[in-house]
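Quick log. Single chain, no ligands specified.
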Amino acid sequence: CIDGATPLARYAAAVFRLQLGSSARWNDIQHSAPHTIEDKGDTIEATPWQTKTTKIGATTQCKILIAARTSMANHHWWKPLLVGKASLDKAFPDMDFLLPQPTSGFHGYLLRPCQFNTALKWMRQLLLQNGCSHQDAIDITLHSLRLWLAELAHLAKVPDELRNSVGQWQGGPKSMNTYTRDHRKMVLEVWHQVQTSGVALLPPARSNVPVDLELIGTDQDTTSTMPPTRTCDDNADDATKDKDPKKRKLRKETPR
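-> predicted structure:
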């Protein structure tokens, strides 16, 4: 693991690992509030308030993001996620995105959603710091995280019905409760078949991604809190150095 990895770096790696494990779109990750992250025992789940196919406010219609609480590197990658989410939720109860915009050097963060290009740069930097080759890091994109499990499931000859379920590419008239329960079982079964098939050792540019992200989320010092935020007007240290950055107001949450 990275020596001296900050709580922010571990949290960011865990967010990317959540996206990979749930086969989610990046927009779905950034349309989920920290307080919706839940540890269900076998799975780590988050609920978007908006997805590509739903409108703002239609929370009950959004499909839950479900990642198996399993590790390919024998590290509890979800611990930094849970610690970070608790810290952010306590400090910013109206925060409606999971990953904040980092400052220059990725040592702090601004209270606004991390932009796509910055998130991609951040993820690649984390992979490189953990020993991933430059070429492998360049080959990985935020879009490829959504397809990672489906690709390995195909190599493992997982049945089509299960394989299509991981990215929620199949629909139907089921109620949300029934769909979530079935989807949870399917995600766990796909991960089990992939991990026991041996294809997880192939090919390096794909299979090493969760391992590298999990090693960053070391089990050590998981009680550390997130660093203090910078104000949204302080752009001098912004990682993107935008002259006129677009700012999104936090969505007003309904009382919990």
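The chain has nine helices and six strands.
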